[in-house]
Amino acid sequence: MIVGLDVGTTAVKAVAISPTGEVLARAEREYPLSTPQPGWSEQDPEDWVHAAEAALAELDTEPTALGFSGQMHGLVCLGIDDSVLRPAILWNDGRTGAECTEIEQRIGLRRLIELTGNRALPGFTAPKLLWLRRHEPETYARIASILLPKDYVRLRLLGERAIDAADASGTLLFDVGNRRWSDAVCSALEIPTEWLPPAHESTEIGGAGDQQAAAVGVGAVEPGTLSVVLGTSGVVFTTLPGYAADPEARAHTFCHAIPDRWEAMGVMLSAAGSLRWLRDVVGGSFEALVGEAERWEPGAEGLTFLPYLAGERTPHADPDARGAFTGLSIRHDRGALARAVLEGVAYGLRDSLELLRSLGVEPRVGRVSGGGARSDLWLRILASALGLPLERMENEDGSAFGAALLGAVREGVFGSVGEAVAATVRPRETIEPDPAWTAVYDSGYERFQALYPALRPLEAR
Question: Is 376 annotated in the active site?
Fold first, then answer.
């Protein structure tokens, strides 16, 4: 019995699988998200632990192997007795704009990209530490160690203090090219290296960040096969055969969950989260909203949605970006709003795909996961907007499934990630682009691209 545990933004998901990939049991436990100030995003780490324990208990099995994945970048501060000092600051928290500027000035942007493969973004872990040092010095002075979300859950469940190179890549404290903590960055930022957990390969400790685990779960382990995630956030992810950071850091370059491989990805902050927001505002169920959206033709008569509800990372790296509907008319109804949201998210993911293509990536197919991937309409829209065939997998558990495979490699059930993928990962359906829709979306994408630079000056006032 192989179990994967994914510590997500909205819930813990647990899946138990056989060594041939059949799902034997699933469980999920939700928990709240706190936004105490505009742009802030926090959670109580104890909620993750309680949810994980409940989900594992519901599976009612003693696992042969247990793997972990989880939301990346979140900062869990622990005291000398491993007590949690404050709520965790999450990946989609946007409070650290000033600290990001400070980091790039201290280290130099080019040097920072050389060392970490990335520029300083508000979602990353290092800026959060600088924010705490400036705004909560009493808490900062009590820090004895830090962990990322899934690694705190691992500590509580297994008593292991560790992190994998894949998840550590998103801290901005990690030498991504050499797959180790960066003494140079930690020294420049005056962050004690003794706070950091030992770093291992994902296959050694059975864990990875949610995006790397999702890529394993859909078999995106070779160049040319993309992982496309329609979760709370949206991701377009490609495997790299070697370390190759974008000189402008427009895409994230991290370690893959596979030893000696790296990955590049574009990330939008509000993908399926945008549809959840619309549902909460206008009412109805997801199924009702998508059903009403299906009655509208592609393009929704010029209605366009900008999905920057929590700022944006790719391609704009702007925590102050904001969402918008443009092109509203008296004919537009709730279904038109939903259609525009589905299409706006697809355009946002196309931004990431076009960026990867500009870096020389030649995708053949995208393999989809995340809650949004359950929608036939959304996948048809996305395939047509991307101009790329999309494969839906037999198993749709994404990160949790990938975590299970990594846990199985750790325990020797499989000899490698490639062997695990070959034994368990199978596409079940291909969604081809619709040529008529693609023509509409090519035009709509041009309009979408024009909106951010047109509206951004208004946000600065």
Answer: no
